[in-house]
Amino acid sequence: MEIKIINEQSIALYFKEEISESNYRDVESVTKHIHAKRIDGIKDVIPSYRAIMISFDN
């Protein structure tokens, strides 16, 4: 997994550069984990086929 800063309020978590069932399961699992933690300051969690964008409320 690679983490990139998008801007001062967003980061993206990138998984393998492929469309696969394995990637989908990884993205789905991490997305569910982030939602379950209910972390203060996280505004949005937006999954895609190989990445998750996380927006923060500063």
Question: Could you please describe the fold and organization of this structure?
Answer:
The chain has 58 residues and is an alpha+beta fold. The protein has one helix at 21-37, and strands spanning 2-7, 10-14, 42-47, 51-56. The protein is flat. The mean pLDDT is 95.
**Shape type:** flat
pLDDT averaged residue by residue: 95
Q: How widely separated are the two ends?
A: 25 Å
What class, by secondary structure content? alpha+beta
Please list the strands of the largest sheet in the order they lie side by side: 1-2-4-3
Pattern of helices and strands = EEHEE
Individual helix count: 1
Approximate strand percentage: 35-45%
Q: Give the total of beta strands.
A: 4
Outline the low-pLDDT stretches. none
Cα-based radius of gyration, to the nearest Å: 11 Å
Largest sheet: 4 strands, antiparallel
Helix coverage percent of residues?
25-40%
Relevant terms:
flat, 4-stranded antiparallel β-sheet, 58 residues, 4 strands, single chain, 29% helix, alpha+beta
Topology:
Layout: E1 2-7, E2 10-14, H1 21-37, E3 42-47, E4 51-56
Antiparallel strand pairs: 1-2, 2-4, 3-4
In short:
The protein has 58 residues and is of the alpha+beta class. The protein contains 1 helix and 4 strands.
